[in-house]
Amino acid sequence: MGSEPVPPPPIEPYKVKVVERISLPSREARESALVRSGFNLFNLTSEEVYIDLLTDSGTSAMSDRQWAGLMVGDESYAGSRNFRHLEEVVRRITGFPEVIPTHQGRAAENLLFSLLARPGSTVPNNMHFDTTRTHVMRNGARAVNLAIPAAYDSQDPHPFKGNVNVPRLAALLADPQVKVPLVMVTLTNNTGGGQPVSLENLGEVSRVCRARGVPLYLDMCRWAENSFFVRAREPGMSHRSIAEIGRMTFDLADGATMSAKKDGLVNIGGFLATRDPELAARAKELLIVFEGFPTYGGLARRDLEAMSIGLEEAMDLEYLAHRVGQVAFLAERIAAHGAPVLRPPGGHGVYLDVRRFLPHLSPADLPGQALAVELFREGAVRSVEVGAIMFGDGESPSPGETPLELVRLAIPRRVYSSAHLQYVADVVGAVWRRRERIVGMTMTHAPEHLRHFTAKFAPKPAA
């Protein structure tokens, strides 16, 4: 396997101005780091990692324009001109009149669900990601995933596997026993492999919600990548700009939460945007208590400026072609080794199909964590499990089986070269070739919420 060359992604639409030194730790150092970290890759130090694909959140390289923007930060406590710039950019991109900055996406989720979710209510989504799900549950509501069936088949070639199952959503909203304060749709669907949502599907969701008087909110953290897929895959969209497709998307919704650490190309920042002035007023009151004054939202004002610039840079077609092309390149290079990946490749990372990779391990063996540990052991590549640990019930050290068991290799934006990604593919290939010898893991410490961040593990004895 691996003899057929795979074309690299399009040439980078930028040149390198600053570099950061990285080095490969020795095998002994990697083994020591695994033991010290409790076999949880979140507990590793950055110096212990060679290629860091843990997350694409806040790990982007900022542009020269963004760095220059930091120098025009107006650090006024209230009424900063950098907030006015951010407000203007977000309003122009989304059409949402109320813009409330936060330090990152989960802070925006905290505002939204603290105000709308109630004990006994139900919040549907195509697929909730970790912090979204936790904020829903923390407020006593039930988080329900309503993705289409293709989303749960890792090999289904459906071009929009992030789509919502509209008949199921309509039935849920029609049930008089179910209270739904809002519907959420995640763009792209991170839990299901970074898969996009079509405009057609989102339009159907919007019509169902409006017929029932239920507000529709978007998790828009990867909205530009979603718009790129719409432009490439949805009939009648290829002549439209990313800005046009984005605005068509937002016109279907009542508001959005945003982690600008993804398609805002910044290392920190986010916002809540809405058409509801009453909700915005209440959110600003909460913001003052937990984040800061509504014109800075827990951020330095220079970070607001970098966010404004990054939101516009994320719409560049050449950048997006390279961004999505890098993901496709890594997926195909891994597949060339014979290792199973989720199909089609998504917008921000490659997802390894753990059940096909390690069929000899049961759900109780925590196979996703076992695979992530082996990738680090083999080549100091840091990834993350997206499966039974991240989305289990949180009440037991023995998580139940989830519809998908994946390991995500999230690619930071404007950071790694094709040579780096080829190295990652070769590491995955090396682990694939010795896959039968991989043993399962045991969770030795299981936090109640978001346990994948701080849980600890130990390898099971070899059979």
Question: Which features characterize this protein?
Answer:
single chain; Aspartate Aminotransferase, domain 1; 3-stranded antiparallel β-sheet; 17 helices; 2 domains; 5-stranded mixed β-sheet; globular; Aspartate Aminotransferase, domain 2; alpha/beta
Give a description of the structure.
This protein folds into two domains: 27-56 and 316-459, Alpha-Beta Complex (Aspartate Aminotransferase, domain 1); 64-313, Type I PLP-dependent aspartate aminotransferase-like (Major domain) (Aspartate Aminotransferase, domain 2, 3-Layer(aba) Sandwich). The chain is 40% helix and 12% strand. It has 17 helices and 14 strands. The strands form five sheets. Strands 2-8-7-6-5 form a five-stranded mixed beta sheet, with helices on both faces. Strands 9-12-11 form a three-stranded antiparallel beta sheet. A two-stranded parallel sheet has the order 1-10. The chain is globular. The model is unreliable at 394-398 (pLDDT under 50).
